[in-house]
């Protein structure tokens, strides 16, 4: 049933019990299993595949500590609206009543962050699987949890029937056209619900036909390519994009989810029309009109009620370039050969055009999301709703396993990589074409900047120097060190043909991050 639902691969750190049965059954069905070195990483790997394919990902874990360790990955799938099937082992029905060792209430633990959780008995499995697949496919997407004992996975199977994928429905009536505000400078706000090929195509056509600029959220990078004439920048609900937002007289929020925005009040008074496949939570964004249904069809009908805008293409390009300039220009650029975070991104994009980029949370993230040139939906993956560290390397492994021929560039801080360093062994074992760039400044830079902004001492945010090339070598990964831009370029060019993973420790100064964050957030 998992294979029929489009699951490409199982990920996990397995135990015995039902895990062993599932891995064996998956192998018999031609569904490969990949070992991760932490349960959280396995969830990130599966989620990355789900984001790219639009089909469910799947991960498994043993009972007790394994299930508990999955939580961060499941929470990430919840807030980033990722269809993820979470399969945990549990005690059998008889043992659950008397045993206490490693016994946690998995369902109660996961229920706040999953769409549905169940612990079926052997006679209830068919209905539970049907329900789980229906829930994971329903909108908005999200994780679903099944607690499976060995009693269940060892029982005789008597057939199954899969429920069809639920479809959202919506209708655009003439009264909607009458309610459209008069607009000369509309702006599209594209969010995570717009990350399909069909929706991206419709959005690009709308932008081109009516001359409407589009801002994209972090999750929607590539829906409107960075190089597109009507690309207006990245939307975060911060200061950087205000040069476009303040000129707008109408917002068309396409697939936008409030979870994507920085948690601060939305201060723009212009009317906002939400066009989405599922209803928007009426919290942070004041919605004037909400249209729910098949987004391409809604966009086609909506465009009939909108005249061509009065935006000037040259002005829009200048506004978008001004955003990039403010992210590039930082104190320290005049200090000769110093390696700047923003130049790391631009050099990597130059040497690996068309690569998929996977980004970890941290101060380096802002330069990557502003300056990496995305060309298609899901070509940049980032943990945005949860914004968790330790995401990038595991997610890159999941992405690279889908298409081993396409290089994947990983942007991570040294603090984030230490949280998942064991997955370097996974990347080496699978011989994946990852280019792992570590922004090495030996500190938790984003937290350090926040301490400095408040006038506090910078405490608890620095750690000792790490010899990352040696760490990489110990895991079987090619390791390099770059202390300036010339060395970075040489490292990337010399290893371009390497068939496996490469780690490049890019030594930077975190002094420019404060300026970057002020440019972005004000």
Write the layout of secondary structure elements.
Elements: E1 10-13, H1 18-28, E2 33-35, H2 39-53, E3 57-61, H3 65-69, H4 71-79, E4 84-90, H5 93-96, H6 106-110, E5 116-118, H7 125-137, E6 143-149, H8 150-153, H9 174-178, E7 186-190, H10 197-210, E8 214-216, E9 231-234, H11 242-245, E10 250-254, E11 272-276, E12 289-292, H12 295-303, H13 313-328, H14 341-351, E13 356-359, H15 364-371, E14 380-382, H16 392-402, E15 408-413, H17 414-418, H18 423-430, E16 434-440, H19 445-453, H20 468-474, E17 478-482, H21 485-494, E18 502-507, H22 513-521
Parallel strand pairs: 1-2, 1-3, 3-4, 4-6, 5-6, 7-8, 7-10, 8-9, 10-11, 11-12, 13-14, 13-15, 15-16, 16-18, 17-18
Helix pairs in contact: 2-4, 2-16, 10-12, 13-15, 14-15, 14-21, 16-18
Would you kindly provide a written description of the structure presented here, covering whatever features stand out?
- This protein is an alpha/beta fold and 522 residues long.
- It has 3 domains: 10-153, Thiamin diphosphate (ThDP)-binding fold, Pyr/PP domains (Rossmann fold), CATH 3.40.50; 174-318, 3-Layer(aba) Sandwich (Rossmann fold), CATH 3.40.50; 332-521, Rossmann fold.
- Helix content is 37%, strand content 16%.
- The chain has 22 helices and 18 strands.
- The protein has helices at residues 18-28, 39-53, 65-69, 71-79, 93-96, 106-110, 125-137, 150-153, 174-178, 197-210, 242-245, 295-303, 313-328, 341-351, 364-371, 392-402, 414-418, 423-430, 445-453, 468-474, 485-494, 513-521, and strands spanning 10-13, 33-35, 57-61, 84-90, 116-118, 143-149, 186-190, 214-216, 231-234, 250-254, 272-276, 289-292, 356-359, 380-382, 408-413, 434-440, 478-482, 502-507.
- It has a 6-stranded parallel beta sheet, sandwiched between helices. A 6-stranded parallel beta sheet has the order 9-8-7-10-11-12. It has a 6-stranded parallel beta sheet with strand order 14-13-15-16-18-17, sandwiched between helices.
- α15 (364-371) links the parallel β13 (356-359) and β14.
- α10 packs parallel to α12.
- The longest helix is centred in the middle third of the chain and has 16 residues, at 313-328.
- Residues 160-172 have low confidence and may be disordered.
